[in-house]
Amino acid sequence: MEKLRDRFARETDPARLKEIAEAAQIRATEWTPYVHLGEWRLVSAARKNVSGFISAGPTVFWNVEKK
Predict the structure, then answer these.
(1) Domain limits of the chain?
(2) Angle at 35 between CA 29 and CA 38, to 5 degrees
(3) pTM for the complete prediction?
(4) How far apart are CA 37 and CA 16, in angstroms?
């Protein structure tokens, strides 16, 4: 995958770029470097009469059961 990335970064021909991109996508399906499990964001708020930021409470997950 690193070799494909290097070749893609150095290539200037659009047709070759497409070929390299297709090869990289095929390789990515054969070897999965990571699995995207979702997104997480810290919820916070700010007010003029309170110094600093106020963080929200614990993260709540819906439709999840502890077994």
Answers:
(1) 2-55
(2) 135
(3) 0.49
(4) 33
